[in-house]
Amino acid sequence: MDKIQRGFKYFPFKTIALHPQTLDDSLQGIKIIQLSDLHLHPRVSLSYLQSLVAQINARCPDLVVFTGDVIECNASKLKKQLEIFKNIDALTYYVTGNHDIFYGTKKLQKILEENDILCLDNRRIHLKIRGQLLQLIGVSDRYSFLRGHKRALNELFSTIDKNVFTILLAHQPKDIEHIKDARVDIQLSGHTHGGQIFPFTYLVKMFQPYLSGLYKKNKTLLYVTNGLGYWGIGLRYKANSEIPVFTLS
Q1: To 5 degrees, how large is the angle CA 127–CA 105–CA 176?
Q2: 82 in helix, strand or coil?
């Protein structure tokens, strides 16, 4: 029998093996943890987030990524909550989601970057993990134009080095449609909550063709996580929260 999930008391780590067809042997075994759709508000306890970070560290990830909707109020009200993520023992990056855009990205970016979590909105970086080169690219949410932020995706994707394994962070899964001929081996997204409460799943799927789980489009693997938090009412039903732990193989 399916149970209703309520509130921030779960640590739903989910182990997932990803098998990109373009993976070089030297990258096998790299571990990535994805946090998405936390929708943090002042009532989320510090002890919960401290336990969350401790459990992330216990899994020894090489990379931790936040794929949007970090906050559900102005970030200035969440300074203590956000500061806890400084204790993640791995390279950590984030991109904004539509709720972050609504509540304001400047303060969020300031607090997160002060705590060693770097914004990848509309940026491409190279990084080395276990001595191996990776390319990480991020896009801001598609509604970022409402705050005057231009995405310029064609220009961004044209800068991708086709000789380097590439991971794209994009809050909304539909951004996979912008990849076209660019090399993106893996896209990590959230936004949908997997529908959050059945049977609203069917309504969400009308607008979000990539609802939950693993998809493949051309040479890109897309994973859409249900995310960890809640939008609106603080419960889930038949769309359990999750924290993906990916291993490349």
Answers
A1: 55
A2: helix
Strand-pair partners of 125: 136
Mean pLDDT over the full length of the chain: 95
pTM of the model: 0.96
Other C-beta atoms lying within 10 Å of the C-beta of residue 209: 12
Per-residue buried b or exposed e for 138-175, using 16+ beta carbons within 10 Å of the residue's own CB = bbbbbbbeeeebebebeebbeebeeebbbbbbbbbbbb
Query: What is the distance between the alpha carbons of residues 168 and 221, in angstroms, rounded to a whole number?
Result: 10
Residues 192 and 175: beta-carbon distance below 8 Å: no
Per-residue tokens: 201: 């799943």
Residues β-bridged to residue 65: 34, 93
Q: Which fold has domain 27-248?
A: Purple Acid Phosphatase; chain A, domain 2 (3.60.21)
